[in-house]
Each structure stands twice: as structure tokens, then as C-alpha cells.
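quick one, two chains, predict together pls
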Amino acid sequence: MTFRAGASRPSQPTWPDYMASRAKQTREPRLADFFTRGTLDPDTPIGQAPLVAMDFETTGLDSSRHDIVSVGVMPFTLSRIRPADGRYWVLSPRRKLSDESVAFHHITHAEVAGAPDFAAIIDELLALLAGRLVVVHYRQLERTFLDAAVRERLGEGLLMPMIDTMSLEARIHRQSWWARLRRWAGRPMASIRLHESRQRYHLPAYTGHHALVDSLATAELLQAQVLYHYDWETPVGALWR
Amino acid sequence: MNVEQLDIRGHMAQFAPFDDLPDALLDRIAGEVEIRYFQAGSELLVKDEPVEALWYIRSGAVEMYQRSGRLFNRLSEGDIFGYSDLLRSNRRVRYPVSAIEDTLIYFIPGDVFEAICEEDDDFAEFVETGGQRLKVTVEQQRDDSGLMTTRVRKLISRQPQMVEASMSLQQAARQMRDANVTCVLVVDVTETHSAYTFTGPDGRHWQLNGILTDRDFCTRVLAEGKSAQTPVGEVMSRRVIVIQSDESVYEAMLCMLRNQVHHLPVLHRRQPVGVLHLSDIVRHETHSSLFLVNNIFVQNTPEQLARLAPEVGTGFVRMVADGANSEMVCRALATIGRAFTQRLIELAEAELGPAPVPYCFMVLGSMAREEPTINADQDNALVLHDDYDPEQHGEYFEALARFVCDGLDACGYPYCKGDVMATNPRWRKPLQVWKRYFTEWMDEPNGERLLHSSIFFDLAPVHGETPMVEALQDLIAELAPQRPVFLAALARNAKNRTPPLGFFRQFVMEQDGEHRKSINLKRRGTAPLTDLVRVHALACGSKAQNSFARLDDIAQTKLLADGVTERLRYAFEFMSMVRIRHQADAIERGVEPDNSVDPENIGSRERHHLKDAFEAISNAQKFLSFRYTMPSRSGSSRTSGGSEEQRSRR
């Protein structure tokens, strides 16, 4: 079964258009650089696309109140994931870590004590994302937190197309009300969802709540989803949001 | 880089050959791994395509096919493949591989693979020596056993008793009595710190200056007329032979023999940590089986004998724990089994009176091959003198047979389900009849007769006129090589039970209609192997019964290609050992020992070797049908004519 639903919607600006306009407007050189690199042509077959899986652990679900505490990034393609190319940072949240959040993301007070602020990793992060299509599991979180974190530090937000393995999974299983419910159920269940999605493709169980592990898990999940439900020729424009 | 969080290393560290790699090397491999997901049904390795990496199965399962399209191997989590292709000069795929489940692969790049082979000999050996793999392991198992590798410190159970040289002999003797030891070490404080001193618990430097044994109290004290108040220092031996605690027990034994001493102080560096006595080594080394055999021969009723039965299991477990190999364990079990049989016959004769005609009691099957396992049942028969008259003597031998077989059952050797026992009148016959039986079996093999051959063609005398059974062994060795139809039928029979090549995948076991979660190592492993060894042994006229001895005889001929007998020997040893350990484990857990092994309980390294062993059997079975072809009807008469000629030429 092949889904090509929701390719480019003519009424809305396309992602390449958006990236190009931001490249012109931005006054922040680092973002200008990023937007100038642009994104992929929507017709690029997913099998040829340079991809990068990304996962954040946060102190909560609201990007206006909560912070990113760790970032995992895993560049990959459908034919290879190279864990050695992955990057992982623990970050110091601007607001104090609460004990509940520690229980949630497993990053301890001691770990964040000497950790840098998000500002310190922006350059390296942008370099890893530039020219690659970002893959996340539950894009609302990564997209809003990345946008907010960059906006706070550089004065402008950062948006880009993303493939959301969770919404691909929801699309595939949209007949199921349960799948829909879970889709909107919120972040605390995210890693369980990732785990459950992976189980459908017989991917091994990883211990969750580690941004780098989850980025690897997401990369593997996309490889599996494309093989099961799409194919390597599927244009990225049919998959990103 | 933070690969450690990804658990790649942790996963690989559980599986052979990675489990034995040094940490640094494993870190490096984990850091270089590349990952890709494959859907069930996809082709992973395509014949003649180049291979660039070692494939490691993180999850899922794959199948490897031979050129002929026949299944060659099934691999699953933790297994590797592609290495034989990587080792070939052109680095192209020889056996295609496809995924039978959704599979996540870790790739270890070719240059990293090369580097590991370069740096780690064990790893290189693992991947380079397909068939040799087994050999290495069996030899390692052998080295691990007993004297050679057990360290002296393992035999030390307590601190040495130490006295100062100024202490009186009486005080020293009291100390020895109270501590229940046969010697004391004589130590003194010394000012100088030297290569011979050690630091005592008081922080001072001490030196070991002598040893005083109970023997010394006889030879140096009483015989010399020394008073009880003489200081120890005057009579002690100053010549102290010591051994380091990490030396082998074997070395300790040699040291005692060389120096004619029975006490050996054991040092950790220079600190005395104990005293080894010759009896400690004897106790360690003497398998309880020897004591048990002695014990068997002094029992006077079957009931008393039956009381010894639990000791067989205990001794068996101890031997396995001591690292004995399968040959040692099985020979001990055979010796014990024969001792029970022999003693029961002696007791029967004592009760029934001497036998009216000479006879020989023989054992058959695994006991005759000296390969019984702990759960073996009894297979036996009576060969009677040709003067035997059923009218006159029948009752006596029936009673004797009954006495022995009942006794064996009570001693833990259950009755034979196939009724191959001396109690069965059919298997209680004069020598002439036995000769006719064997001749008929070989001349006109049919289904039932072939069934017998797997039991009756392994035979050994236990008690009585052994030449009678030897006459049967001679007859078989003479006739069998000239009976191609018999050999071919036997060969075909030997292929009935096949090794489970896809053993470790559950669905394969289901397909085979086997027990869902276990594999019968006897039925699918050792039994097919002894069957095929028997065919070759009969073909080459060997009179040996033991499978290892038969393999020796076979190796003398050109029946099998170079190295094949070795591979079979190792396969047999390895499978036997896995089975024996499984049974010892069952006894220890208080469970009835059986032959069914749960693959979950087999370590990854053992799995590899078991696979190799099954493969060795499978190949040998294929060779059987090639070597012993059933002659066609016309061909059969020609062949038997040929044997006639051969016979007349003899």
C-alpha cells in the first residue's frame, strides 16, 4: 500500500519557498546560512535523501515554560545509519529542573550542572541539520522547542520541513480511533509510542528517554516504515510536513 | 561521540566471538558499526556481489543457501555472516543470504574486520576456521580439566598453623592437635627485609624458616629421644619446599614427588596462605567412581547394591564439575554399570549355584560402546555354550537373567523398552544360534533386523566365558565388509535421524514436528553420529565398539577424506559434553536427567559449535549414501559373487 497523500498543497507556500524567503529576510547570519542551504526538492526520492533524525528531551511539554535538556542528532540515509556520526548534548535549562521532570527525562541535576546553554550548540546543530531532511517522532515537540530556543537566543525562530514518523504511523493506522487518540495524547507517552511503533516492524526494544537512543530509534523506524508502506522512490514532499 | 548509550557494544558483548574480545577492541568495533533495517523476504547477500562488511544480526533472522539452493544455515540475533566471503580474495558472495524475519543489521566495515582479525587471534580463529572451530573448543575443554589448570589455591581450605622456633615441641604438638593439622610452619621475626620475608598482621617482618610435621615427631623427636620441652627450632626441617598459590595442582604434585615430601606450604608471593597435603590432591583427583566401584563389589544383596544407586549421580555431577571430558565420564559410567552387572551375576550364582554350562553375559548398545549416559537403560543378552539343553538348563539361566535384570532395574538401569534383555528367551541362546542370528542379519537385512543392528552390533562381554562374545565380534568383523547390501541398508538407516540444522529458530523445530522448545541431543545428535560411525567401522572390519576407537580404526583406512574423522570426533565430543552438562545440571537441580536441551539454555559460543557439529554430521550422512550405494538387483548378485571370491582367497 502506498500513501502519497498530502503532497504539496497548492494553497499553502511550499517548504522550499518558505526557506528561500527566510534566507532573504533574516538578519541573523547563522540562520541566513542555514536557510540559504535550503531544503530538498520535494520531488527528491526519499531513498536518495540525506536525512537526520533528531530527538529532544525537555523539562515539560510547553515550549514557553519548559526547556530542552538534551539533544540527540543522528545523520542517516535509508541505506545506512552511522551511529559514529551522531551527536548528543546535555543542556543547561534556563529554568530550574524540577524533580518530576528529572523522573521524566532521566537527566539529573548533576548532569546539567556543568552543561552549556543551548546557545553554545546552535552552530554545530545547524551545521548538522543544514542540507538534510529532519526526521522526528512527534514533530510538534521538536519543532516548537527548536523554534522557541532559537528565537530566545537569536531573536528569530527556526522552522523547517520535518518527517514525523509518528504522524506517518498515524496516517497508516488512521482507521484506528485508538491510534488517533494516542496521536493527540501528549508527550509523556511519546517514547512508549515510539517503542510501540517499532514493535510493529519487529525492531528491537531500546531503553527509552535518551535523546541519542531515540534519534537512532527514529531513524531505524523510518527505514522500516518506508520499506513497509512506501518505497525508496517516494518523493520527500509526500512525507514531510 | 556517545555510542556507548546506544547499547551496540553491550549487545555484541553477549555473543561469540565478540564476548571474548578485549574491551578496547570491542569499543572500537561498536564505534564503527553502521545500521540498516531489512524487511522479511529481502535478499541481503546476492551471489557474486561484492561484500564490504561483516554482517551482524541485531534482531531478526536470516537464511543462507548453498549453490544447489539447499538451505545451508539459519542465523539469528547475535550471529554473524559474510566473514567467509570477506576472507576470500575476491570478496564476493558465495552463499546468498535472505531475511526470513524483519531484520536489523549492524555492519562492521571490512577494514575494521581485518583489523580485529589482525589484533585478536581468537577472533581470527573463530572466523577463519569454520571446521576447526570445534577442535579448538574441545581442546580448550580438555585443558580446562583437572590438574593442569586447577590452581593450588583452590585446594587450600584454611590458614596454615604457624609457630615460632623458640616454642616447645609440646606446645607445638598441642597447637597441631587443637587445629587438627599434621604440620606447622616455623616462622621468626627478622629485622632485615629481604626476598624471603613477609609482613605479618603485626606489621613486622617474618621469615619462613622451617616446617614440622607429625612424621617429624616420630623420626626426629621420639626416635632421637628429644624432650617435650625442646624448642621447635632444634628439630624442624630447615629444607622448606614451597609452592606459589597460582601454580597448577599438577605442578604441586610433581613438586611433592620430586622432593619426596607430603606437605607443601603454599605461598602468595612470600606470605604463607596454607599447606597442601598429598591427600588433598588425591581427594581432588580421585574420581569417586573408583571408590564406588570398590564399594559395589563388597555388597552382598541386590538391595544393598540398589542403595548405592544415588551415588552414581553424585559422582557423575562431581566428574562433570571437575571438568572431565565425555570419554572420561562415559567410561566411568560404563565401568560402574559393568560393575553392577558383574556383581549381580556373582550374587545370582551364589544364590542359584554354579552355572550348568559355560556362558557369557554380554552388554549391548551404549554400555558396550562404553558410551552410556546417566539415564541409560539396560541392554543385555546371554550367550550360552553349545552344550546348552533347554530342558535341563533352561530354568537356571532364566532365573539368572531375571535376577540380574531385576537387580539392574533396582540399581537405576531401567528395563529395556525394546525387551533386549537376557530375560527375553530369544536373546538367551547358544553361541551357534547367535552366530546364525548375526549371519542372517547381515545376509538378509530387513527392517526389523536393521533395527536390531543398532543395538546388537555394539556388544561386549561382561562376565563368564568372554571368548564366546569375542567369537561373535570376530564373525561380524569378518562378514560385514563383504556384505554391501547390509552396509547400504545400514547406511540408509543411519540417515533416518537427521541433525537439526535450523535448531535455534523455534519455527524450524515446529516444522520438524519436534518438541516446541527443545531439542533431543541424543536422537538428533549423538545417536545419528554413532550410527554412521558404526557403518564405517563395520565396513572396514573394525572390532572396536567405542565410537572413538572406531574412528581411530576408520582413520587407518581411506574410507573418509582427510580430517573428516577428526571433525566427527570433535563433533561427538562436543555434543556429548553438552548433553552431559545438561544432565549434570538436571541432577543438581533435582530433576530427572534427559536428553532434551532447551536452546535458551545454550550459550552463544556453544550454539556456534553445536551448529558446526550438526553440520559435520549432516555432511557425513550425505557421504554415507554416496559411499554405500544399494546395489541393483543384478549388481547385488555380482557383488556377493565377488565376496565369495574374496572369501576363498583368504
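Confidence is low (pLDDT under 50) at residues 131-145, 506-515, 634-650 of chain B.
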